[in-house]
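Re-run with default settings, no changes from the original entry. Doing this only to confirm the output is reproducible before filing.
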Amino acid sequence: MTRSVQALGASMFFFFLAIALVLQSHPAPKPQNQIPAANQQVTFNRDIAPILFRNCTGCHRPGEAGPFPLLTYKDAKSHARQIAAVTQTKFMPPWLPEPGEFKFADELHLTDQQIALIAKWVEGGAMEGAASDLPPAPNFVEGWQIGKPDLIIKAEKPYLLPAKGTDQYWNFIFHTPVNQTRWLKAMEIRPGDKHVVHHANVLVDRTQSARLQESSPGAGFAGMEIKIES
């Protein structure tokens, strides 16, 4: 696992990873889609592709965390009923904040209208539509999403996830090689295998007490209940 920062405080960081399947999206530029009239057939090219391009293809594309791509009509049609089911329950796209007075930049949650549109598309036979209605595929930035980092910190030892079993929660400890206080502007976590990492929490351990929980230096340790001495 690799972690990047553009500015970092002069203290020892450690964070834990919940190892599980992930379907997390990073937004592409938002295309504009027209809502069809009540008697108009919903099609992939005109109505559904803009929704998927905006909210899903950041991860549902080759090399990313999604287990299958959603860049083409063929991709989406083969998973049409699954897409309708997970959007109806709001399991996908993964977005935890509840709608409120203030909005986050690049929000990934679907509107009720978009969810209904996907359901109507599936119920209507998941039709492709006219090729001229298909918006351009999104352009993705490869590599670091926050730009070239000022500092890259890597885990001392890798963690091998068992092929079978329940979710694993593993804590990696990182020392930050800085000797003065710095402002943290941005941070990006890059796991070795995106398909098995669900999320990561970052905690500051100013006393380095987390090291006492390792069986050997750099090995990390298991568990969700983390105790850090103040």
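The chain has two domains: 2-22+145-222, 44-133. The helical segments are 44-55, 73-78, 80-88, 112-123.
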